[in-house]
Amino acid sequence: MSWLNRVRNTLPFLAKRETPDNLWVKCPACQEMIFTREYEDNLRVCPRCDHHGRIGADDRLKQLLDEGYDLVPLPRVPEDPLRFRDQKRYTERLKQARAKSVHADAFVVAAGSIEGRRAVVGVQDFGFMGGSMGLAVGAAFCAGAERALADRSAFVVVTAAGGARMQEGILSLMQMPRATVMTRRLREAGLPYVVVLTDPTTGGVTASYAMLGDLHIAEPGALIGFAGQRVIQETIREQLPDGFQRAEYLLEHGMVDMVVRRHDLRTTLASVLDYLQPRAAA
Question: How far apart are CA 81 and CA 62, in angstroms?
């Protein structure tokens, strides 16, 4: 035994200290290490490079809605209508996803207000099976729209999805026309439907309710598109421009109306709702 080890064994103040595993977080963009508390206090936005990290549904609702909002009860749907199995059973994948979440699926709806403006807010959680759109997500979206119609309030949807849920096959794709019908009903009722596009919003979600809003707001740097860049590039056999399918590129080409930092999102939504539905007419 070396003299250093003997000293360590006899001096208790040199004992190894336990360091929490979650004390630091690495920014996926600039790779800088950030104190977790600093990162959380900054709304999961990197203070070094301003990268907007992904957040869960509950955190998003707390950031956008005034205190006192209520979660909207969501309808139950068949959980494994196709008895799907790949490397695991679909029911097993759902069980694993629910073990990491307090919600039953990837879409959560709450009714409340945004700086005093009544609103129903639906949030897609990428942490739940990639925010994939299946029967439960489609039913939750429709329930949120129905609540907005009943309350005569705006419907704000925050999207984050990898597309349709493959384990539900054609049934997941049928959620696209279902959601489209609900956006039409909102428009006919004269109620605002506002979409906040976050990283990533892709696939069938982009091809349906994510791009049918009266106004589209994107977070900085968010990936927004239908097919993947590699698929597009191999199909058209051309090099894609820098920043293709990112929020700023889509703003420049007229696909979104504004790019808003997370810190300003709540105030921006309040202003938008004042414009689209003045409180005197609500």
Answer: 34
In this predicted structure, what is the pLDDT of residue 102? 95
The CATH number that applies at residue 227 is 3.90.226.10
Structural domain contains residue 218 = yes
Looking at residue 133, its pLDDT comes to 98
One domain for residues 44 and 148: no
pTM of the model: 0.90
pLDDT, tens digit, 9 for 90 and up, residues 95-141: 999 999 999 999 999 999 999 999 999 999 999 999 999 999 999 99
What's the CA gap between 104 and 279, in Å, rounded?
Answer: 34
One domain for residues 211 and 102: yes
Domain hosting residue 161, numbered range: 55-281
**Per the domain annotation, does 105 fall within a domain?**
yes
Number of domains the chain is built from: 2
Nearest residue to 213 via CA among 189, 190, 195, 191:
195
Q: Are 65 and 156 within one domain?
A: yes
Instruction: State the Cα–Cα distance between residues 140 and 134, nearest whole angstrom.
Output: 10
96, 25: one domain: no
The closest of 84, 86, 77 to 105, measured between CA atoms, is 77
Residues (pLDDT < 70) of the chain are 1-21, 279-282
Which residues are paired to 113 by β-bridges?
118
pLDDT in tens, 250-263: 999 999 999 999 99
143 and 258, same domain (yes or no) = yes
